[in-house]
From TrEMBL:
PANTHER family: EAMA DOMAIN-CONTAINING PROTEIN, OS03G0707200 PROTEIN-RELATED
Domain EamA: 6-139, 148-281
Subcellular location, record wording: Cell membrane
Organism: Craterilacuibacter sinensis
Membrane topology per record: Multi-pass membrane protein
Taxonomy, superkingdom: Bacteria
TM ranges: 35-54, 66-89, 95-116, 125-143, 149-165, 177-197, 209-230, 242-259, 265-283
One Pfam family matching this protein: EamA
Keywords recorded for this protein, A-Z: Cell membrane, Membrane, Transmembrane, Transmembrane helix
Assigned GO CC terms: plasma membrane
Protein name: EamA family transporter
Major place of residence: membrane
Amino acid sequence: MPPSQKGALLVVLAGACYGAIPVFARMARADGVDSASMVFLRFALSAVALMLWMHWQKLALPRGRTLLALIAMGAIGYSGMSLCFFAALKTVPAGTVSLLLYLYPALVLLLSALLFGEHLSRTRMAALLLSSLGMAITVGGALSGALSGVLLGVGSALFYAAYVITGGRYAWRVHPLAATTVVMASGAASNALLQLLGQDLQLPASASGWLGVVLLAGVSTVAATALFLAGMARVGASRASLLSTSEPLFTLLLAAAFLGEMLSATQVLGGALIISGVLLAAAEKAKKLQAATG
């Protein structure tokens, strides 16, 4: 298999691993694990595995402002996104939550324009409009007494947009594995603090619950990270970002197969518009990177 095809396959497999998060989360939640405990266990187990991986690769931890930025990304951005995402799964179908999370590319464009004065080209405007329309249709199809869950889904996209903006300014300075390790470790630390402040740690009550937690950390974090980094090394960051839009599609398929969740026709339409907006934004970024590299 040519390296480019192998790389594309690896990135798509990473999308499948990430897309399985709601299935594994439901396994843990059914065994009594709440959102905060689930996030802590996922981050803590992943951080240990990633630190061992870093040691094997002989990578050093980042320092200075980059380290502080990565800590904030994990403790606030990624942790906030995960808490909102898992909490939303209580009342909203997994496919809908995954689609709402994928509003983050449009939010990155909007926040970058508002906060840093970045130019909104016609392509970016079209991406924003498509994603906004898709959100309106998706949310409209999900409002069956689950408004809080929908708002949490949008909140997960906001947290992740802040995470991506910060990462775009700092994380590129270090090896992706080192950056991921710091993010996971700081996320585990911030959620450990939540536990100390009064949120009781709820451990799984049986083997099936522990299996869900271990799969969250092992498959949907460590393995997904390894597959994505290996694929990105072969196809480049731009193409990898386009291929990563397969994640919500895998979530829809896995949620239908294992959770019995089916989206309505309007939610499918809304999801298609959101993904179209993501693809537009990613395609423009890919063109700019290609032009910059000659």
